[in-house]
Design goal:
alpha+beta; about 160 residues; ten-stranded mixed β-sheet; Immunoglobulin-like; 2 helices; binds copper (II) ion
């Protein structure tokens, strides 16, 4: 009897810990690039913060708005900007945040089914190794939400 009780307690503890781990990811500034008609791709951007004690990994993404969604990295290679498909996913280290932003890591919506209009909400499902599935609403914009104030410094 006592053993069974202990097992049940451990199971409850494991479930509670699992739920906590799932809460260790937070998301901010989720937006997608509004596209002209017939655009073949659209970039998706979001800041992912991992406040947990374990690293997690963004494994894949999908959306009803596009044929498929890939995880990409944009990087300078000599004088060329190159884009790489991260087939192994993207690690979100413990206690850190990773920014998916223009010119860096991003989600790439391949073959959007319809043009993405400014202000529209696009739902994208992110799949993490530990935290599982998260469905996020990305707001369509022509530029990064914080880019407008930065652009102001040029004038
Ligand atoms: Cu890309």
């Amino acid at each position: 009897m006592r053993f069974r009780f202990l097992t049940a307690s451990l199971l409850a503890l494991a479930l509670a810990t699992g739920a906590q781990a799932a809460d260790s990811l937070a998301f901010d500034k989720a937006w997608v690039r509004a596209t002209p008609p017939n655009a073949k791709v659209a970039g998706g951007f979001v800041e992912i913060r991992n406040s947990g004690k374990n690293a997690d990994r963004l494994l894949s993404a999908s959306s009803d708005a596009a044929e498929r969604v890939e995880i990409h990295e944009m990087k300078m290679s000599g004088e060329l900007m190159q884009m790489r498909h991260l087939t192994e996913g993207l690690v979100i280290p413990a206690g850190q945040s990773v920014q998916l932003k223009p010119g860096s890591y991003h989600l790439m919506l391949m073959a959007p089914k319809k043009p993405i209009a400014e202000g529209q909400k696009v739902s994208i499902t992110l799949v993490f190794e530990k935290a599982g599935k998260r469905v996020l609403e990305f707001t369509a914009a022509k530029q990064a939400p914080e880019a407008s104030s930065e652009a102001g410094h040029h004038h």
